[in-house]
Amino acid sequence: MQMVYAGAIVGLTFTGLALVGLNMPMFSGAETDAAVTEVQRPVSVGAATTEPGVLRVGRSAGNAMKFDIQDFDALPQLVFETSTIWTDGVSTFSGVPVAVLLEEAGLGEKVAQPEAMLELVALNDYRVRIPMGEIGPELPIIATRIDGKTVPIRDKGPYWLVYPYDADPQFRTEDIYARSIWQLAQMIVIE
Question: Which among 142, 134, 180 has a CA at the least distance from the CA of 37?
Answer without folding.
Answer: 180
